[in-house]
Design brief:
The protein has 9 helices and 16 strands. By secondary structure, it is α/β, with parallel strands linked by helices. It has a single domain (38-314, 334-360), classed as Alpha/Beta hydrolase fold, catalytic domain (Rossmann fold, 3-Layer(aba) Sandwich), CATH 3.40.50.1820. The protein has an 8-stranded mixed sheet, with helices on both faces. A 4-stranded mixed sheet has the order 9-13-14-15, with no helix packed on it. It has a two-stranded antiparallel ribbon with strand order 1-2. The relative contact order is 0.16.
């Protein structure tokens, strides 16, 4: 991918929970979007000995509209994931695709869940979605959360599903997806059957979904979902999750005949698994009272007005700039400050609730 000079009249900060379109202050910025890394050719199938760092074929659609209308037009991307297996398994095992939050893979969370799953006889595949698109740990948080969208994460999740289904060690009928924050939102959005058919209609869909404190401000107006059950885990003191909006999303899934297990932990905040100390992150923005509604073409609207105004073939630079500039439309529903960090009590209960959900669904 050629480097593109992205000149932005307005720079908007992305929220720690990966909410989009949040305004902070006006700045004049010139930014060069990074090249995709020059990595080894991706592998479309897994063999018995594959472990650790795995490169796999995926795409970067950026928008729901492109996912629904022409996913093959999205830029091809070499994805990256970390595959781990149980030490001893009598036959093909269940597997879990794990999607990190907006801050990327965090100590105490994604790889620790992978180890926990392995100990219970389940394979795990932790997806890294920033590096494949040229963003490292030192990249601007604001830019990378605007240049890599939740629909890119959904594309990675389904590409990982197809990859895992090719393994002789994995039961293709028992592959789930779980995500945290940004990744939790993507794990829930992936339930839309239109998305599943567009991205991985040639393999069995995810057998279950787990959304761990994923924001709920988006209504895809899904006409149908895959039918897989979902577990949602949230904290009562996590302002980044608009709980009434989350209840609406969960009720919409129930009305589509989905089994929804929704748990809210009293007193819990955000990212309770992370190693960082628990505390109030006063400058962290969040949305409350706004909902982005998608039409049947996959175009987003706020209060009846379109959020983006660019052609279907627009460059990534144009799409990112439009996402930035739409932030002013959200200024009436932005708040600041919510609790983030390690909470041993909630962490232990969440592991127990995930284990019960997995057992109930044959994992």
């Amino acid at each position: 991918m050629k480097k593109i000079l992205l000149t932005l009249a307005l720079l908007f900060a992305a929220v720690a929970a990966a909410l989009l379109w949040l305004p902070t202050r006006a700045l004049l910025v010139a930014y060069t979007l990074p090249d995709y890394p020059d990595w080894p050719a991706p592998q479309a199938r897994l063999s018995v000995g594959d472990r650790g760092r795995i490169y796999f074929p995926t795409r970067s659609p950026y928008d729901l509209e492109r996912v629904l209308s022409d996913p093959e037009s999205a830029p091809a991307t070499t994805g990256l994931g970390y595959l781990s297996h149980p030490k001893q398994a009598p036959g093909p095992v269940a597997a879990m695709v794990i999607l990190p939050g907006s801050g990327g893979i965090q100590p105490g969370r994604e790889h620790e869940y992978a180890e926990w799953l392995n100990a219970r006889g389940i394979a795990a595949f932790v997806v890294e979605y920033y590096e494949p698109r040229g963003f490292g740990r030192d990249s601007s948080y604001t830019i990378r959360t605007s240049a890599v969208t939740e629909f890119d994460l959904v594309a990675d999740a389904y590409a990982a599903l197809r990859l895992l289904a090719s393994s002789p060690l994995i039961d293709a009928q028992r592959i789930g997806v779980m995500g945290f924050s940004y990744g939790g939102m993507a794990a829930r959005l992936a339930m839309d059957s239109r998305i599943q058919q567009a991205l991985a209609g040639d393999v069995a869909p995810f057998a279950l979904h787990i959304d761990v404190y994923g924001p709920c401000y988006q209504d895809l107006k899904s006409p149908a979902v895959t039918g897989a059950p979902i577990l949602t885990l949230r904290g009562s003191e996590d302002a980044s999750n608009d709980l009434p909006a989350c209840e609406r999303r969960e009720q919409e899934l129930r009305e589509l005949d989905t089994e929804v297990t929704a748990i809210v932990y009293e007193g819990a905040g955000h990212a309770w698994e992370n190693d960082s100390p628990r505390g109030l992150k006063e400058d962290a923005p969040y949305l409350s009272g706004c909902e982005v509604i998608y039409d049947q073409r996959g175009r987003p609207f706020l209060n009846g007005e379109p959020l983006n105004s660019y052609a279907a073939g627009a460059t990534l630079a144009t799409r990112v700039a439009a996402r930035f500039s739409s932030g002013l439309k959200f200024q009436d529903c932005v708040g600041y400050g919510y609790i983030v960090g390690r909470d041993e009590t909630t962490r232990a209960q969440a592991f127990a609730d995930v284990e019960a959900f997995l057992a109930r669904n044959g994992f």
